[in-house]
Amino acid sequence: MDSAAQTFPPRVMSIKLWPPSQSTRFMLIERIIKNLTTPSIFSRKYGLLSKEEAEEDAKKVEDIAFATANQHFEKEPDGDGSSAVQIYAKESSRLMLDILKRGPVLKEDGEAIISERAAAKGTVFDISGGRRAFIDAEEAKELLEPLKDPGNLFTKICFSNRSFGLDAARVAEPILMSIKDRLTEVDLSDFIAGRPEGEALEVVNIFSSALEGCDLRSLDLSNNAMGEKGVRAFGSLLKSQKHLEELYLMNDGISEEAARAICELIPSTDKLRILQFHNNMTGDEGAIAISEIVKGSPALEDFRCSSTRVGSEGGVALAEAIGTCTHLKKLDLRDNMFGVEAGIALSKSISAFPGLTEIYLSYLNLEDEGAEALANALKDSAPSLEVLEMAGNDITAKGAASIAACVATKQFLSKLYLAENELKDDGVILISKALQDGHGQLSEVDVSTNSIRRAGARFLAQILVQKPGFKLLNINANYISEEGIDEVKDIFKNSPSMLGPLDENDPEGEDYDEDAEENGDHDDELESKLKGLDIKRDE
User: Fold this and answer.
1) Residues 91 and 144 in one domain
2) How many other C-beta atoms are found inside a 10 Å radius of the C-beta of residue 539?
3) Which residues is 473 bridged to in the sheet?
4) 484: which of 197, 232, 355, 394 lies 20 to 30 Å off by Cα?
């Protein structure tokens, strides 16, 4: 047969998302522990768990969630596992919330007690479990029946993941009116999914009017693609809120006009501690409107305005407004188009956050100049910083020097994410040197996609493997030679789970110099530089 006439079937790539790796499972446990031991509105009401109790509960939560998701996966083994992943995440979140609302407990026979549902206390009414679904009037009557019990003590309702049509909304209306005086938390995220705009707006109006006048502490309206019309349809509810502590408006189509409407409708945000606007189309003008809300929120502790299409002008406005929030603990501005100017503006506000523990500044087009300004500002503030993320900002070895000086002062640092930059070996070794002394709480470092070669990877690995609490190093998608990969694996031979996947490493990448690798010239040159390297630390 003529070889030119041969045909081959196309290659079909199948990516399995389930089961998760051990490192992924461990990372989830760590996140649950952090949530269970971090002071919050729940801990003030129910008490704060000790680290020991949180660790025990977190492992139980993850085990239960994994078993539940795995049982689902076994029923559909030909799938890619995406539905199992969703169940894993949702079940973990549900069980973790149960524990937060349960608070610390006495142990019986050495075992911590995990309640089946927080609703056992009679304070939470949650219909979000199960498959995302439309509900009609009959189903609404059945689902909401417990709310009609005059003896119920529900203070929180969660209608998320259930799409209400007009008939179902009319069933809910009198029930909500009867209990609104005792409600403190309302979650209406993703409750009109798939409905035509006209019907969705009528449903929103019904819920808004029914809940008008309730004195909420937490309101979640995320994942409703509202836009300005939807925001104004919630006007009755928003206008009556004077004591909100938490407001979530993620993935809501918050445009410039919608942001202005929010600013106009909410009468007071002086008690607001959490404000989240993730994944909207806010833009610069919308960011300027949001900055007015921020200025009126002096108690703000957690501000998220990531993936909101904000450019330099809006970034500067947000940076200046954030400077008034002296209680800020968590700041997430990822995936915007700030640029250098907004980065420098933000650096001028950093000193106002002495209690900052987490800062997410990835994909902001900071470049060296903006990254240096922020790193220098952080170096002299935020002594308890635990998470620093500056991935995807075109940071080179020049900017790495300032980051290294900053990192050297952060002895509570747990996670450092610097992926998708241009640090190369010189920058990575500078940062590695900064991590050499102390940093006993460091658990994760990500310097993937940084054009790193053998010397940088090896030096970083040698330092991190010695950290007592270290969990995961990601050096994937770099230019590490095969010899370098073998060396790194040997460094982690006693704890291979600490080393992330290396399937995207390219030993013959664009920066690969075969002669230099064979002769060790590059390694020797870098190692000679290290002899005189010193990262200055504040006394």
Assistant:
1) no
2) 3
3) 445, 499
4) 394
What would the pLDDT profile of 157-189 be if each residue is shown by its tens digit? 999 999 999 999 999 999 999 999 999 999 999
Residue 448 CA to residue 421 CA, distance in Å, equals 8
Report how far residue 205's alpha carbon sits from residue 209's, in angstroms, rounded to the nearest whole number.
Answer: 6
Q: Is 279 left (phi over 0), alpha (psi -120 to 50) or beta?
A: left
Domain edge (last residue) among 268, 303, 325: 268
Beta bridge partners of 359: 331, 388
The residues that bridge with 157 in the sheet, in sequence order, are 125, 186
Task: Answer yes or no: are the C-beta atoms of 262 and 293 closer than 8 Å.
Answer: yes
Whose tokens are 């308890």? That residue is: 384
Q: Among 84-93, 180-189, 477-486, 516-525, where is mean pLDDT lowest?
A: 516-525
DSSP code for 510: T
532 close to 431: Cβ distance less than 8 angstroms: no
Tokens 């008939």 locate to 167
- Which position has the token pair 């446990």? 29
Place of tokens 């008690």: 271
Burial of 378 (0-12, 13-18, 19+ CB in 10 A): buried
Q: What is the pLDDT of residues 258-273, one digit of tens each?
A: 999 999 999 999 999 9
Q: Domain for residue 57, yes or no?
A: yes
Contact assessment for residue 458 and residue 475, using Cβ atoms and an 8 Å cutoff = no
* Residue 192 within a domain: yes
Q: Which pair of tokens denotes residue 49?
A: 């768990």
CA–CA gap between residue 505 and residue 53 (Å, rounded): 40
Mean pLDDT within 105-114: 45
Does the residue 254 lie in any domain? yes
Exposure class string for 513-535: b at 16+ Cβ within 10 A, else e: eeebbeeeebbeebeeeeeeeeb
Residue with tokens 């952080």: 378
What contacts 400, CB < 8 A, 6 or more positions away? Answer: 423, 426, 427, 428, 430, 431
The answer to whether 75 touches 18, Cβ cutoff 8 Å, is: no
Enter the tokens of residue 243: 């004591």
Among 164, 149, 230, residue whose Cα is nearest residue 195:
164
Q: Is 406 in a helix, a strand, or coil? A: helix
**For residues 221, 92, 58 and 277, what is the CA-based torsion angle, rounded to 10 degrees?**
-30
pTM, two decimal places: 0.75
Q: Is residue 195 part of a domain?
A: yes
How many alpha carbons fall within 13 Å on the CB side of residue 305?
Answer: 30
Q: Nearest Cα to 390, choosing from 439, 353, 440, 427?
A: 427
Helices (H) and strands (E) in the chain, counts: 20, 15
CA distances from 74 to 28, 84, 95 (A): 22, 9, 22
Residue 68: CATH number of its domain: 1.10.246.200
Hey, what are 79's tokens?
């799938």
